[in-house]
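FW: tagging you since you asked about this chain on Friday. Here's the raw sequence from the shared folder, copied in full. Didn't touch anything.
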Amino acid sequence: MKDFKNTIPLFVELKTEAMRERHWQQLMEKTGQHFDMAADRFTLENMFAMDLARFTDIALEIIAYAIKELTLERTVKEITEVWL
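HL: got it, structure written out here
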């Protein structure tokens, strides 16, 4: 139960719209955990099986970069729309 409790916040963070395929690939490379991103196979059960909680620091770092990238993309888009 403790593992479950500690893992849920990470899963919530991983659900962010900022996570793009490149970020998932980076997560797989850095953790050595490879997973199928197909919707019918990318399940909560499979995520628990990968024990991503062991890599929380790595995952949170990737998520932080993904969020920063998304913020920059949106800012550039807004600037482009205003100036063009």
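FW: The radius of gyration is 15 Å.
HL: agreed, and The CA atoms of residues 33 and 50 lie 7 Å apart.
FW: great, closing this out.
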